């Protein structure tokens, strides 16, 4: 019940937070990416409060739809959409497609390989793909600190996911997890490209609405009876407004000053947050391997955030 009340409070605060200044200080970029990752990390905990019988595909589609519509209403009110001809149409379509592809590939990979392998390969491959695509697409060459921080964070994900878990290696599942990591890196790259010519609110609104359109077929012929319960509505609103609309509001502003490679590594704060909330909110036990994983991810994030002293 406390989590549901927290969800309601966050939902009421979203419009207020959205009205903050669009100007992003260069030093604030990494913190905004981490704030987005923290919100993404609440997804699993929120789903734990959903009633039995919920469908992850329906939740994924509604998450994009609610978040996208919330941002779309905001940008229309603020007259930020601009003219149709000023939008890079190809980048919008590609970004929207990969936004939807990430949802499908990641959840399908986890279903085939289990949470442990799916998380390691999917989330762990995203920073590597982000560094590669950022270098090729935007000429953002990762530095040595990024390599070291990414290595620590991926190792942390391995410890976090493998601690006491049963391993089930499935080749198709592995490929789906890699596709999920690549999809995440690619839609991040598309957001970064479009941010050069459009404001953050408009970019995220269009991308999430586009992703929702790609996922709408998932709602056909599926049981949605569980959705019309008060607890289900609160969970879906939290996922749409907090973990999608608000989180990507942070994410887009962070990307204005942060490289794609760095952003994908900082996003590994998501599994760290999910594991911590599992212990604090859901009463899950934290073994030594998982604790070591959280520490390694935290150290990797610190390396990227702290500026070198001259």
Describe the 3D structure.
The protein has 13 helices and no strands. With 310 residues, the chain is mainly α. α2 (29-40) packs across α12 (269-280) and α12 (269-280) crosses α13.
**What characteristic shape results from the CA principal axes?**
globular
Strand percentage, roughly?
under 5%
What does the main sheet amount to?
none
State Rg: 18 Å
Unreliable stretches: 1-21
- Helix-strand makeup class: mainly alpha
- How many strands? 0
| Element order: H for helix, E for strand | HHHHHHHHHHHHH
Helix content: over 70%
**How much is the average pLDDT?**
76
Q: What is the count of helical runs?
A: 13
Q: Calculate the terminal CA-CA distance, rounded to whole Å.
A: 49 Å
Task: Summarize, please.
The protein has 310 residues and is an all-alpha fold. It has helices at 2-18, 29-40, 43-48, 56-77, 89-113, 115-138, 144-162, 171-194, 200-215, 230-255, 260-266, 269-280, 288-305. It is 74% helix and 0% strand.
């Amino acid at each position: 019940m406390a989590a549901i009340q927290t969800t309601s409070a966050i939902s009421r605060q979203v419009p207020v937070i959205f009205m903050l200044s669009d100007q992003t200080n260069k030093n604030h970029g990494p913190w905004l990416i981490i704030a987005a990752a923290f919100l993404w990390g609440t997804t699993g905990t929120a789903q734990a409060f959903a009633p039995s019988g919920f469908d992850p595909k329906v939740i994924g589609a509604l998450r994009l739809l609610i978040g996208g519509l919330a941002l779309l209403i905001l940008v229309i009110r603020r007259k930020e959409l601009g003219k149709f001809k000023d939008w890079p149409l190809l980048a919008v379509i590609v970004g929207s497609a990969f936004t939807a592809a990430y949802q499908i590939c990641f959840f399908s990979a986890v279903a085939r390989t289990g949470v442990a392998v799916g998380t390691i390969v999917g989330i762990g491959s995203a920073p590597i793909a982000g560094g590669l695509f950022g270098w090729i697409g935007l000429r953002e060459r990762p530095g040595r600190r990024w390599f070291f921080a990414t290595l620590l964070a991926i190792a942390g994900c391995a410890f976090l996911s493998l601690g006491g878990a049963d391993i089930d290696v499935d080749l198709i599942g592995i490929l789906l997890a890699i596709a999920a990591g690549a999809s995440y890196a690619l839609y991040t790259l598309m957001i970064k490209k479009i941010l050069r010519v459009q404001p953050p609110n408009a970019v995220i609104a269009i991308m999430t609405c586009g992703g929702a359109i790609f996922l709408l077929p998932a709602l056909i012929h599926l049981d949605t009876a569980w959705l019309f319960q008060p607890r289900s509505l609160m969970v879906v609103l939290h996922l749409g407004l907090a973990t999608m609309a608000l989180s990507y509001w942070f994410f887009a502003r962070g990307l204005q000053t942060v490289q794609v490679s760095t952003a994908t590594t900082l996003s590994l704060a998501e599994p760290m947050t999910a594991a911590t909330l599992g212990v604090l909110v859901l009463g899950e036990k934290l073994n030594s391997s998982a604790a070591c994983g959280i520490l390694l991810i935290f150290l990797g994030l610190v390396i990227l955030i702290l500026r070198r002293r001259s």
